[in-house]
Design goal:
The protein has 434 residues and is an alpha/beta fold. 45% of the residues lie in helices and 11% in strands. It has two domains: 2-56; 68-433, Alpha-Beta Barrel (TIM Barrel).
Length: 434
């Protein structure tokens, strides 16, 4: 190795998370340049990037900055797909509010704490120990963004031991996603069908394929006023993308009187089955609170989580109705234009129900520092949406891995640089409201 590289590398890696006490120079270099994978921390992803850049002249496969990541995905994707993911309801004021809410909080760093060499970001969610409080948000129609779609995201979240949530609007079926995900935690997100037979059938398939937690999305029983999609007349489900669960479901076949995936099925039958799935899962009739007793009967005592909570009243009701968790979310600003930013809802809900129910959060997380703010404000876990999709769009599985590792690395660094060793140290005393 050329001397100049060594000098650069030593400079770059001096901040790496390794113990320096009584270590020979050779040991120090080995532990940084060739770490045992078991010792590799999330934050060491930056060392890997600098190392590759210096030795192989190879920069990261996609930007580590969200805005630049999205800009490159936009260049690559068809306008319909890009707008479907980037867009929100109406004037997209809620999409913007989700971001603005993060800017209302700033982190107060604390220094010279005993936080190295390795932070402990692990947590327990619904009886599972996880390496970090990070979950894949349910995102439908992923083959719009890359042909490998849900398989790629489910594979990478599985590799990292972080839960993958399969959407009812998935373009890949229960079994195929389970196979890609392997022996790792996975959740199923329900768009609650208007027909109980279908609901029972979906829940049965979810259980059979090892999905452990039921996430019930309660804010999208009808589609919001999505101006970008309306202007393009773009609705992927009518085109047969994002209806795979309906196409594969045995109960749906019975109701339709045919199997749309049979080799002799006609194009009209496939179209009809696709429409049937869309209409039964978002026909414009909201489920009501007392309906939850049915889901509890069918799902049993496994965890049920309501996604799409923004009000304290609803959070308290979720506790009363025996739910195991809530996800504070406004669907990424895709449902009500002019609604509050999701992070604005968090502090009061934490105040009301923390400890009584598991609290998840999504909406506007674009960096590891954002994850830190959400955990500091009292959420038990976060969900990642659009950043992961842009990674998928750009590079499939590799892009998802890069974006996920980047977010985890920055989160890990932010925890450490703020003087925290584990999640229990990350609380709102480290934040200042602007
Ligand atoms: C393209 C796209 C598809 C989505 N599909 C679903 C879905 O099928 N089910 C669901 O509950 N939420 C869905 N969501 C909402 C996400 O689960 C999550 O609430 C949202 O993406 C969070 O906002 P963020 O991505 O801006 O951080 C979708 C979001 C996007 C961007
Ligand atoms: C570094 O390069 C190696 C070999 O090309 C590759 O396997 C690895 O994924 C790269 N890591 C990063 C962070 O780019
Ligand atoms: C990490 O922290 C969790 C609680 O936050 C604790 O239960 C666990 O034992 C810790 N792990 C280690 C290795 O210290
Ligand atoms: C397809 O084949 C099945 C079984 O052979 C039959 O019942 C069905 O009617 C056929 N469908 C069409 C559209 O021909
Ligand atoms: C919810 O309950 C109401 C009345 O009790 C019923 O009319 C409706 O069909 C139920 N909806 C679902 C999805 O179970
Ligand atoms: C917040 O966390 C710090 C450690 O980072 C701890 O010293 C402090 O007691 C905690 N405060 C509260 C209110 O929990």
């Amino acid at each position: 190795m050329k001397l100049q590289y060594l000098v650069i590398l030593c400079t770059v890696f001096s901040a790496a998370s390794i113990s320096v006490a009584a270590q020979s120079a050779q040991e120090l270099l080995d532990s940084v340049l060739n770490p045992d994978p078991a010792d590799a921390t999330y934050s060491s992803y930056s060392s890997q990037i600098y190392y590759n850049a210096t030795l192989y002249n190879q920069t990261p496969i996609a930007s580590t900055n969200f805005d630049r990541l999205e800009a490159s995905a936009k260049l690559l994707l068809p306008a319909t797909a890009y707008n479907y993911a980037a867009g929100g309801a109406g004037l997209e004021k809620t999409v913007a509010a989700n971001r603005e809410a993060f800017d209302l909080w700033r982190i107060i760093p604390q220094v010279m704490h005993d936080v190295s060499p390795q932070r402990n970001l692990s947590t327990s969610l619904f009886g599972r120990r996880l390496p970090a409080p990070v979950v894949m948000a349910p995102v439908g129609v992923q083959t719009l963004f890359h042909p490998t779609g849900e398989r790629a995201t489910a594979k990478v979240f599985g590799e990292m031991g972080l839960p993958y949530t399969l959407s009812t609007a998935t373009s890949t079926g229960f079994a195929d996603v389970a196979k890609a995900n392997g022996n790792n935690p996975r959740w199923y997100q329900l768009y609650w069908p208007s027909d109980d037979d279908l609901t029972r059938s979906y829940l049965r398939s979810a259980k059979q394929n090892g999905y452990e937690v039921l996430v019930v999305t309660v804010d999208t029983w009808d589609l919001g006023w999505r101006t970008r999609d309306l202007d393009q007349g773009f609705f992927p489900f009518i085109r047969g993308i994002g209806v795979q669960i309906g196409l594969e479901d045995a109960c749906a076949h019975e109701k339709l009187g045919f199997n749309p995936l049979a080799p002799n099925a006609t194009a009209e039958q496939q179209q009809m089955a696709a429409l049937y799935h869309v209409i039964t899962t978002s026909r414009g009739i909201s489920p009501v609170w007392r309906n939850l007793t049915k889901l509890r009967d069918w799902w049993g005592d496994r965890p049920i989580v309501l996604k799409g909570i923004q009000s304290v009243v609803d959070a308290v009701k979720a506790v009363e109705y025996g739910m195991d968790g809530i996800i504070i979310s406004n669907h990424g600003g895709r449902q009500i234009d002019g609604a509050i930013g999701s992070l604005e809802a968090l502090p009061a809900i934490v105040e009301a129900v923390k400890g009584k129910i598991t609290i998840g959060f999504d909406g506007g997380i674009r960096s590891g520092a954002d994850i830190f703010k959400v955990i500091a404000l009292g959420a038990d876990f976060v969900q990642l949406g659009r950043p992961i999709l842009w990674g998928l769009a750009l590079q499939g599985e590799k892009g998802v891995r890069h974006v996920l590792k980047s977010l985890l690395a920055e989160f890990d660094l932010t925890v450490g640089l703020s003087g925290c060793h584990e999640l229990g140290d990350v609380n709102s005393t480290l934040l200042k409201a602007r």
